[in-house]
Design goal:
about 250 residues, alpha/beta, Rossmann fold, 8-stranded mixed sheet, globular, disordered N terminus, SAM-dependent_MTases_sf, O-methyltransferase activity, COMT_C, Methyltransferase, methyltransferase
Length: about 250
Amino acid sequence: MEVITMTATIKLLSTEQTKAFDTEYVDAKMFTLVQQALESYSIINKPFTLMDVGGGNGKYADKFLSCYPNAHVTVLDSEYSLLEKNTSNQRKNLIHAPFQNVSDIPKMQVIQFNWVLHHFVSSGYKESCALQLSGLKDAYELLEPGGVILIFENFYDGWPMKELPSNIIHQLTASTSLAAITSKMGANTAGVGVCFHSEKYWRNLLSTAGFNQIKSKHCYDFGNLSTLKKICLCINEQRVGLLIAQKPI
């Protein structure tokens, strides 16, 4: 299977750091939410295309193709070692590139980000937020009118301000001087950075990017941090959810 290579400017994880993502996080219950969303927008009634941004090893794409025989999937990832793990499929294309530099791609009916947008990080916190908004705007342009964007994300609600954990976690994980410490504390993104948000913040970004009919589905609550760490990071609530939005017809 041919892998098309493109280049772009963005802070990327090392090959060693990406090994943790050689897995599949979307279980049967969460995939049902995807199916329900696509059915509600009548996406699956005719042949359609999906771009799986950060799709890595292609396990999600394979699941999707198995469910939808009328679908074609483009798996996009910046880590070549993950793309190499894809099984061959005539209805699956592979692109080796960050999403920020994708060009000359046909319009899609569906674009999906599975725990990927929080890895859109740049030189600082504000720059990372701007990069995420830019990515959503790019997705908007790449979708056909009536196309749908699906986003699985970890939502972090802070106290006393919802976005406080987002800022703190980014500053800690982006610091190269603290990388050894944050890595030992379990931060796989140590030295590069990660930029989580609350559900409300992501909804605002989607709206700003031009999407409408923005919906969300709760998947599950999570949190493996000690009470002390949650207090230090100003975390009030952690949960996983699916955001669904449409480009106006």
